[in-house]
Amino acid sequence: MKNIPKGFRLGTAGAGFRRPGRDDLGLIISDQPAVAAGVFTTNAFKAAPVQIAQETLRRGPMVQGVLVNSGQANACTGEEGLRNCRATLDMVGRAAGVDPWALLPMSTGVIGDQLKMDLWEKAVPALVNSLGGRDAETFTRAMMTTDAFPKFVERSVTLSGGMVRLVGMAKGAGMICPNMATMLSVVLCDARVSVNAWQDMFRIAVARTFNRVTVDGDTSTNDTVLGLANGASGVDALGADAALLEETLEAVLGGLAYMLVQDGEGATKVLHIRVIGAADVADAEKVARTVGHSQLVKTAMYGRDANWGRIVAAVGRSGARFRSDDVQVRLCGVELFRDGRPVPGNHDAKLAEPLKQRDLDVEIRLGTGEGEYTLLASDLSHDYVTCNADYRT
Amino acid sequence: MKNIPKGFRLGTAGAGFRRPGRDDLGLIISDQPAVAAGVFTTNAFKAAPVQIAQETLRRGPMVQGVLVNSGQANACTGEEGLRNCRATLDMVGRAAGVDPWALLPMSTGVIGDQLKMDLWEKAVPALVNSLGGRDAETFTRAMMTTDAFPKFVERSVTLSGGMVRLVGMAKGAGMICPNMATMLSVVLCDARVSVNAWQDMFRIAVARTFNRVTVDGDTSTNDTVLGLANGASGVDALGADAALLEETLEAVLGGLAYMLVQDGEGATKVLHIRVIGAADVADAEKVARTVGHSQLVKTAMYGRDANWGRIVAAVGRSGARFRSDDVQVRLCGVELFRDGRPVPGNHDAKLAEPLKQRDLDVEIRLGTGEGEYTLLASDLSHDYVTCNADYRT
Questions:
Q1: Domain with A208 in it: what CATH number?
Q2: Exposed end of chain A (fewer CB within 10 Å): N or C?
Q3: Catalytic: which of B145, B182, B224, B248?
Q4: 3-state SS record for B231-296
């Protein structure tokens, strides 16, 4: 299939977990064992597929595929949920001719309900038959819940031994009641790379991208990011080539992370919150997260309001170390705050147009040290509330 | 004046800082020096009146009154802001015949602008002339910004030496652009109490009340809670009487704190989040705050949605220690989650009526230890977004 890294086949099918007439199952098979890396939710309530994927990766890093479903999260489902998850891997693995325990599961959807095993059984033959006949967009659509658009990034990069391909696919902060925003993502790569090299570059790239975005600060029971490198291109990624691959991997994950914020529930803005001059990186992150999670800042940005006061107040309660007279705040390149005071001038006129754009730069300088951190955050809109306050009465 | 503790006189006047035709200045004078206690914002950007009130209390605990204005926050105003604040204390102290440096200032309103000193000068004579002619409600109204209703609590308690009175007045999470929610409160008491006893009971009562409410998690540059006890009743509060006074003080502050949440911007609900069985109090607080600040939980409660999944997810990412199988969640007395799984049953029908009420009980049991914590939180509504996203375009 066009643009899919070599040696991977994608399949999708519709089981009808929530809505008929759409695909809600996705299967990835690697023709040869692939090196896998995974980053999982830190939530204490881990969904059954998260527990099982973590268990699989603890046994060893080589896998043969990924099985994903939308519509049912298989979270808060106890022992029965774990048994059901294993049963789905078993039936799919047998049908596809691969070791069921070499498949990594991912689920998103309603939490608390047990998997509808009868619907799984009916859909598995079609799922396996479709292998090799689906592209990244179709696969991504099968993972979607209330996402406004499919999120995938295709990249190739030429290393000294030849070209390698990467494709990243993600679902974002979509919501189906009664649950929470779940983020699922999988990246496929056909470079030949060692277990340690792949897992290291994957962990670093996730930390620099997915872990630097926020929609509403909630972490779901199901959040999962997987990376598979199968070596099918026959091209090694060593030395400078490894650095180039890492850069490309970060670009793929960065592209997906940006789309996750862009498609945050009800989001109309992507805030690029850049903190400079903090005492250290931890302080810079504290400031960025406090600003990025501030309901008052998020509503102001939604309202196109050059409200430096709310940004400054968030900086002030972040717990980071700085002298208040050293703080500077720029919004869309316009300096609004300096030396502990607002900068005089008619900023509203200057910012009217920039604040209508989707991407807004918020730059905060603390004047204390060398610590830097950038966070992408969504705004907070009427649609966010509408989307999440499902009147049942 | 009726219900005002002995020896205190209240005054108000309209200076026209933002809107003509309403009082925006308030003055409290104690005829004899009063023991003062204060709790102030922890924000690194402290408004001029906060800096000066803290400086005054560091010099000594005896004060003669409180000067408050709404419409101008005098925050982020640098040295000029400090000079202006001192000048207002000076002109009011001289006119009222008290030491200007024994007055504690409080301000709320637009941040970044310098005080309009000409309006202050014109209004001070009327302010001082009104002393003794204003009640708690009128004083509270002079502090209000966008508060929906005035918040004050009047209480008396009979100690062994006779009756003492308390009155608490507060303004809440009202918002005037471009600024942030500021909370101001002052409690007056005519009991005779030592500096240490009053400051200790005040600090404890604030920790148990004001520090256990949340609207949007933001802490303003101006937040201030003051307590003055002037002894004018001639009634001592010693031993068991001190305990009785402390209880009454906590009831007054608790009443104000409840009203602050009830009048949170756009709030339609007061969530009583009670965490029981945590490893310690710190863990219980972590859970309560993570749930109380969760946008997903707050919108669900606004939407009258018995969404245990969002509560459980917030508990799971709180960082508190527990076994997920031990967690129980009750909403309005109905058990929704137990042993790591949803409790079967038609909860929606049972909860339809309770979820229409203003006060919603969220009880979370961790089954780990003895730690408990209760937090009052508001919901997150369309009106919150409307109130805070002031379209300027």
A1: 3.60.70.12
A2: C
A3: B182
A4: CCCCCECCCHHHHHHHHHHHHHHHHHHHHHHHCCCCCCCEEEEEEEEECCHHHHHHHHHHHHHCHH
* Same-domain status, A102 and A242: yes
Of the residues A182, A209, A248, A290, only one is catalytic, namely A182
Whether A294 and A375 map to the same domain: the answer is yes
Q: Going residue by residue through chain B, which has 393 residues, state the pLDDT in tens, using 9 for 90 and above.
A: 778 999 999 999 999 998 888 999 999 999 999 999 999 988 899 999 999 999 999 999 999 999 999 999 999 999 999 999 999 999 999 999 999 999 999 999 888 899 999 999 999 999 999 999 999 999 999 999 878 899 999 999 999 999 999 999 999 864 333 344 678 999 999 999 999 999 999 999 999 998 888 776 666 788 899 999 999 999 999 999 999 999 999 999 999 999 988 888 788 999 999 999 999 999 999 999 999 988 889 999 999 999 898 899 899 989 999 999 999 999 999 999 999 899 999 898 999 999 999 999 999 999 999 999 999 999 988 888 887 776 443
Spatial separation of the C-alpha atoms in residues A110 and A363, rounded to whole Å: 38
Interface test mutation site (partner B, options A82, A177, A307, max chain B beta carbons within 10 A): A307
**Are B392 and A294 inside 8 Å of each other by CB?**
no
Smallest Cβ–Cβ distance between A219 and the set B46, B317, B341 belongs to B317
User: Do B121 and B232 fall into the same domain?
Assistant: yes
A45 and A89, same domain (yes or no): yes
CB B310 within 8 A of CB A178: yes
Please give the residue of chain B at the shortest CA–CA distance from A387. Answer: B299
Q: Which of residues 135-194 of B touch A (CB under 8 A)?
A: 177-181
B219 is catalytic: no
Residue B176 lies in domain:
8-262
ipTM: 0.84
**Same domain flag for A101 and A187:** yes
| A172: exposed, middle or buried (Cβ count in 10 Å: 0-12, 13-18, 19+) | buried
